[in-house]
Design brief:
This protein is α/β, with parallel strands linked by helices. It contains 10 helices and 13 strands. The strands form 4 sheets. Strands 4-3-5-6-9-13-12 form a 7-stranded mixed beta sheet, sandwiched between helices. It has a two-stranded antiparallel ribbon with strand order 1-2.
């Protein structure tokens, strides 16, 4: 029996499942864990995924067309999981604003898809936008169409937050890939923002040996995930599954703790939601149980 969150409205004698409507925005080609996160999301029966969009991750060591690299892998994953019914709009290849600051949007098919999807939400409902990389596309969407701000919930993996000292640190990969976009999210009054800081995830690791033992040779998406580790970082015997943690948190809020905290002092001061801890063991168990269920199909 599927365990789904339920709403109170009755249709006949059955409670109707409450699906979380979302767009996943990912810098998929950047690392290993993005692919595992997207796969987990696509296998979650409680999610209604409207799109899988690509995000840029430019830096001086990256390929020239990072967003196109992410786009290709996104399309591969959708094909391998037979989910080509899900759109895969291309994200922006440039940051919001300028390298020294600013808030000029970087328009793209992904930003426009977010805008149109948010506008289609029914009264009382919201669109969840999950940013696994830089916030370029969601920030551009709300800058281009501020009227969607109350219609979206933004979840992102970005920065560091030290709850015991109430200290923020933006010196982190996703934050640095588009600091202007992150600041836009922090500064947008009325935007429901949930941040998973990376410093709570250091112990959420997969072992290469276990992944290859369980996935390699299984065909389809499973061989693709195993091969990605070997092609991207064969020397890494362990990998922190950053992005997967955020998807697990959305699928199982009970695996996490969130607190309302103030934005960084250099930003407009408002309260946002910040994850302060995760249940690493529960997340690991859930991933492998989800995989095993797919093997049994």
């Amino acid at each position: 029996m599927l365990a789904l969150p339920l709403v109170g409205a009755l249709t006949g004698t059955k409670l109707q499942p409450q699906f979380k409507s979302m767009i996943i925005d990912a810098d998929t080609a950047n690392e290993i864990d993005d692919l595992y996160a997207i796969t987990r999301a696509l296998l979650e029966p409680g999610f209604r995924i409207h799109a899988l969009s690509s995000a840029q991750w430019k830096h001086h060591l990256s390929p020239e067309n990072t967003v196109w690299e992410s786009q290709k892998i996104n399309e591969d994953i959708l094909r391998l999981l037979d989910r080509q019914d899900i759109p895969s709009p291309l994200g922006a290849d440039m940051i919001v604003g300028k390298p020294w600051g600013g808030s000029e949007p970087s328009n793209s098919p992904a930003a426009q898809f977010i805008i149109q999807s948010a506008k289609k939400t029914k009264p009382g409902e919201k669109l969840t936008v999950v940013s696994l990389g830089a916030l370029t596309n969601i920030a551009s969407a709300i800058l281009l169409a501020p009227e969607i701000i109350p219609k979206v919930d933004c979840y992102c993996l970005s920065g560091k937050y030290f709850a015991n000292r109430k200290v923020w640190d933006k010196d982190e990969f996703n934050a640095r890939r588009d600091l202007n976009a992150l600041n836009t999210a922090f500064n947008t009054d009325g935007l429901d923002l949930h941040v998973m800081p990376v410093n709570i995830l250091y112990e959420f690791r997969f072992r290469q040996e276990e992944v290859l033992e369980k996935l390699a040779g299984k065909g389809g998406i499973w061989d693709y995930l195993a091969a990605r580790w070997l092609s991207h970082s064969p020397q890494n015997m362990e990998w922190i599954m950053w992005d997967l943690a955020l998807i697990e948190a959305l699928a199982h809020p009970e695996f996490t703790k969130q607190e309302e905290v103030l934005t960084p002092p250099e930003n407009i001061q408002r309260k946002i939601h910040v994850y302060t801890s995760i249940d690493r063991d529960a997340m690991l168990k859930d991933w492998w149980e989800t995989v095993e269920k797919e093997f049994d199909r």
